[in-house]
Amino acid sequence: MASDLISMASSGTRAARTALEITSNNIANASSEGYVRRSVSLSEVAVASVSSAPTAINLAGVAVSGVVRNADAFRQSEVRRTGADAARASAELQGLENVESAVEATGVYDSIVDFEAGLQELLSDTTDGALRASVLEQGRTMAETFNVAASSLDSVGEGLRFEAQDGVDNVNRITAELARVNLRLARAADASSDQTSLLDQRDSLLQDLSEYVDVKTTFASDTGVVTVTVGGTALVSGGDTATLGMDTASDGTIAFTIDGTAATVSSGSLAGQSLALTQVATTRSDLDAIAAKVIDVINTAQANGVDLNGNTGTALFSGTGAGDIAMIATSGSAIATATAGSAANSRDTTNIEAMRTALSSADPAGDMDTLLFGVSSAVAGRQVTLDALESIASTAKVALQAQAGVDLDQEAVNLVRYQQAFQANARVMQVATDIFDSILAIR
């Protein structure tokens, strides 16, 4: 015989014991995030027999050839890709909702309408001090709501930039961890339990990284070492890492760099925050334009008429935009309602009518309504997009879990099967021992 029963049974018990350990580990980690089910790869041990034909092969047991991770690179890549898309949509939607709240809750539109209504009421009696005071107060309220809206938008931008910087810091932390895992993978024994644990860590870190940026991965076939690129630029290569940076423009929008070179981040939460900041900048610019229009129209009309005291009208508002617009008139008598050259306490309404006509033509209330509608439409559209992307991401996760996750029913079956295999091999060794003892006992 090329091998004896005891050696064959001994190899079987070793294989069954290893399989039992792997199965027990699968059951213990069934609910662990990022854990990939393992299985044992077995191979037959064959030796040539001297007494037989040269090409004859005799089986001599079984050997554990490795521990196999039941991972699917394609499904893992899909989970990262779809998850990054969903994270981008979620971050963008959150930012847009904050923008919507900033411009709606402050009541800028209502304050513009109230100011225009106050000017209309003043037409009924341009010498009425109460009506003049009301217009002044409504103008002051309008200016303050512009100020609050601008401040709120600035706060939204600051919050988004803070979150984006935190995301950049997390990306750099994760890439540093990935580089360390790469170095350990390069030294790990092939198909060892240590290597499979490191591969789990690698995949978990890649999943975390994809929450912030869209990653492209290339894996070394022999070691599992990963190379990660973002926007075509390497972020992790073996044990080396590049640094992701964030630059802020004058309008508050952000751009990303890798080791100082411009990089395109098209997905992940960082991309969503960048898109939301672009909307913040656009909304702030539109709000400034509306405020500037009100300032210009009212102050120009003021200069063309005379106030209640018969003096040439002076500016009612100061500032250049929503952030610094302010009512500077201190008395209702400063409103220039009469045409140039009119006497004090004139009931002439020529200039106030011209002021109203100019304000109606400029239509700041209409512009504000358009701004609000645009932001609200963007929020509604992004919500639909987010729902669709989250559904796609969820489907990809379910598919990966079905393929790489632990099925407790199957593991319970394997537990019984490998336990019986261990007992059977142990019984073979016992029988072999009894046979040889019987032979040796023959007299």
Automatic annotation (TrEMBL):
Residues 404-441 form the Flagellar basal-body/hook protein C-terminal domain. The keyword Secreted applies. It holds the Pfam family Flg_bbr_C. Keywords: Bacterial flagellum, Cell projection, Cilium, Flagellum, Secreted. Residues 8-35 form the Flagellar basal body rod protein N-terminal domain. It comes from the Bacteria. InterPro entries: Flag_bb_rod_N, Flg_bb/hook_C_dom, FlgK, FlgK_helical. It is found in: Bacterial flagellum basal body; Secreted. Its main location: other. Residues 95-317 form the Flagellar hook-associated protein FlgK helical domain. NCBIfam families: flgK_ends. Belongs to the flagella basal body rod proteins family. This is Flagellar hook-associated protein 1.
